[in-house]
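Re: [help] complex structure
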Amino acid sequence: MKKSVFFGALTVAGLVAGAAAAGTVDDIKARGKLNCGVTTGLVGFAAPDANGEWNGFDVGVCRAVAAAVLGDPKAVEFVPTTGKTRFTALASGEIDMLARNTTWTFSRDVDLKFEFVGVNYYDGQGFMVPKELGVSSAKELDGATVCIQTGTTTELNLADFFRSNNISYEPVPIETNAEAQQQYLAGACDVYTTDASGLAATRATFENPGDHVLLPEIISKEPLGPLVRHGDNEWGDVVRWTLNALIAAEELGVTSANISEMSMGTDNPEINRMLGSEGNLGEQLGLSADWAKNAIMAGGNYGELFEKNIGESTPIGLARGLNAQWTNGGLIYSPPFR
Amino acid sequence: MTTLTDPPKESFRLSMLIYDTRYRSLTIQAVAMLGFMLLAAWLINNTIVNLATLGKPIDLGFLGEPASYDINQRLLDYNSRDTHLRAAFIGLINTIVVAVLGCITATIIGVLVGVLRLSKNWLVAKIMTVYVEVFRNVPVLLWIVLAMAILIESLPAPRDFRGENPEATLSFFDTVAITNRGVYIPEPLFSNSLGNIHLFGDSSLRFDVSLDLVAILIVLAASIFAIRKVTARAARIQAATGVRPKTWHVNLAIFFVPMIALLTLLGFHLGYPALKGFNFQGGTHMRNSLIALWLALSLYTAAFIAEIVRGGILAISHGQTEAAGALGLRPGKTMRLVILPQALRVIIPPMISNYLNLTKNSSLAIAVGYMDITGTLGGITMNQTGRELEGVLLLMACYLLISLSISAVMNWYNKRVALVER
Amino acid sequence: MSNQAFVRTEMLPEQHPPATTVGVIGWLRENLFSGWFNSILTVVSLAFVYYVLSGILPWIFQSAWNADSLNECREIFIATWGSTEGHACWGVVNERWLQLLYGFYPSDLYWRVNLTLVVTLIAMAPVLFSDQAPRQLWYVTAVYPFVMPWLLWGGSIWGPLMAAAGFGIGYLAYRVLVPVAGSLVAVIGAVVLPILWWFALAGTVAGAIQGIIPIGIESVESRQFGGFMLAVLLGIVAIGCSLPIGIVLALGRQSDLLIVKALCVGFIEFIRGVPLITLLFVASLLLNLFLPPGTNFDIILRVMIMMTLFAAAYMAEVIRGGLAALPKGQYEGADSLGLNYWQAQRLIIMPQALKISIPGIVSTFIGIFKDTTLVSIIGLFDVIGLSNAIRADTAWNGIYWELFAFIAFLFFIVCFSMSRYSMYLERKLHTGH
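Output below.
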């Protein structure tokens, strides 16, 4: 009898919690913090500094969403996740969104029941080899030893690539980028393969970056983007349009420097609608009118985030490439704010 | 005269369940069972409800889908089109390989170090003490990672073997290539091979057994059986006449002649590694990940085994050594014939738990990319299919099976050597 | 009578022993060169020691302490020694050592962690050095389980106080119910009432009192725990919580009750048969699935639960060893005094069994403590996890050995001193017989 009361109490508590989990936006507001899943550390995308502050490109997205919902870019609880734990953490509600350079694939979207809200970085899997090998194409790698960082789609792409080109290889699966880097430099593998952004970032920290070349083949499409659970479309909309606001801001020339001025009102109605001086987009999202302004103020627009964390002025030195605005020949494109 | 009366019939009262010792144990057990079943039901019910919410009913179907990833270190054939079940099986075999190798070397190193720690040579004893303390007191995960890093940094890369004046050359008369990708040792080849038996057809658990190996094992077993017969006969003659006939030349002949004959028949020769393209080709390739894991696990476990061995030897009373000395046995023979057999009884039980620990610690293989069962089933398969519940439960079941078999075998051995008390 | 001149009448003066058997030379001969085999061993060992030290020492000492990035280190190496090979870049440890020790714990609250460590040591003193520590310290040990979480997690003081009150309620219930309804009802009451209190009332009451008399310190979320502190915390929690569970399991395993015994054996063998990493997978991936829908508590608590269960199985075996080592006369003595099962356990068996189990408990603790490094595999920032995160910083990408050396050093210091303590204890127990 007493046992059943006890279990009953627990179940009731569980049901209450379950019911509360229905509206993620309300949950976050009640909590006062956004729980954002990030990597346990990836150069340029997410890493804690000496004071425990998280920095990076993916971290920037989390901060922007926190600023849009709560008005405070610091109101984020960063939850480090591994390749294995990330989807469980999201599915179980431990995190509200995942911004952990996760590739948008069919099975993750449909089978694992997640909703990718957009793409914040278009990547692809590439190869890096020492210059002295004299290799100019990945198809010349027959019999080579290849270091792969595991826990991602990389090993699948690699298996498919070598299989479809009918050449043999020797995979060396490695848990972390640091170890892969060390093995590659010591010559324990001939080739290092991971996302091209990761390769560039890794090469930048070598003692002699010039001794290594990236091969021209990009063997996969890796659209990386933030994702949320299926079933809470309002929350999905918030994350999607925050990302879009960052992208549109760059296109429209709104930067963290001129945003306070622009939010007073400009001649461009789209800017006005986005920044809340016209229309009620914020209200439609269930947020305050200045949600986009807060999001952009958090770390700047998409271009600023890119330049600050992974762009050509940083040691990582990634070119915009595919990640340029569509107006500059890239793929980064936001639907209109209307 | 006297009328027998039954003792007053005791009516069963509910309180007897608690206050009567005849019933109390039953009550307690019933309550315990009920509690356990309630708990289990509660957990299972929660799981079912949660899985239904997630839309992921328990389904082992994913094991039949193609794995789509490659495994480098494998004893059986496998390619990326094979199923997840096959990948898990390859991983299981890899776990067993490293566990068996590790247990053997850990025992050898451990016994050696344990004996040397008691050496009269001060320097040797101290070095062994430092070894034991350093290895016991640093987490095994660090040792595994460090072993890998040391192998990679200190050994030459295959490219160093290239060119006119290579920086590195093959060891052991040009037969073994030690590189930072692993060690290539000569492989046994048979020109008149008997072929393989394919067990389990085309299923995921298919298993090729080389008939050459089977033939060699059969001949070996037969030789050993014959040698034991000869030795037993010699012992009988010695017991009867007091003179032991010489047997070593017969034994040698019995051991080598059939084996050499068989190997010649099979056309046995060695295949040597040679540098071709990016890597060495030919020979058996023991990858660095395996060597690092093997080395780290054996050195780590050996430190514990050394302490057990030392404790076991110290536990044997000094009188035994003195008695052996009085009988005129030399120190080496004293150790081998008197001390170790007795110490073994003390040593075996804690040794079992160290073997179990080594096997379980082999699950840290993912730190160096050795594809054991945690790396395949619990690693890439789980990542790719998102079937955590099924994956983790299968993983646990596999380890439980391995652990229970090890304990069963070792306990059986322990029973054999245990002192029979009267 | 006759003068036997060949018999010496006065003693010869004492001679010094031969120079080769005393002093340094004598020691050397005795211990290092007592035979050709030993001499060879000594020479080989010397060569080995030289080889190892000549590799490591220059690396440790010809190093750069003041650098903000790996590249800066390399510049210093080039400027000072002309090459980047074989020098340690301790700059990373210099910059990050606080983070490696405390994780992301707010830096102005480090004192709370330090204080917790001091309190922990004081609370453990009566257990570890039972004959030297003053008896008053047992009070510290008694309040420690409530003080430790409060200091680390912070928040309102009423939470831990209300939790402690549960035990008071249990005791009171027992006292009140014994004369009224007998000992059995009293025991049931003493168990059920506190549970009801904890689950149903304690939280509300604590909240209410906090509303009236707010006393509290800044709260810290467990996500901010990390580094070496996390390893120590996980070790202490796992061992502390597993002790009572382990005792129950050990008694259950020895009991005559078939079902109870089967349940205990099943649990112990299951936990001991699977690697810790699979249990950590359960903590990180599955534990939420097993609980009522919507329950969600953070990963560090889940890891604590699984590590406690893990430690409990090993603890049960250690305590079973202690129970088995007690002479049978102790059990018979207890029986002859007419004590019932629980009285015998409480007054006679357990105090002795636990005492002889302490060395085993300490080695279990060392094992658990070392195993806490595994949490890095499920993405927690313990020392190893942090070292990976540090390498993801652009300034330190590519650094390798220095961090591992530092971590190994930390673990070695702690584990080595604990194993020395355990050996001291074993010696003490040994001479006690």
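The two ends of chain B are 54 Å apart (CA to CA).
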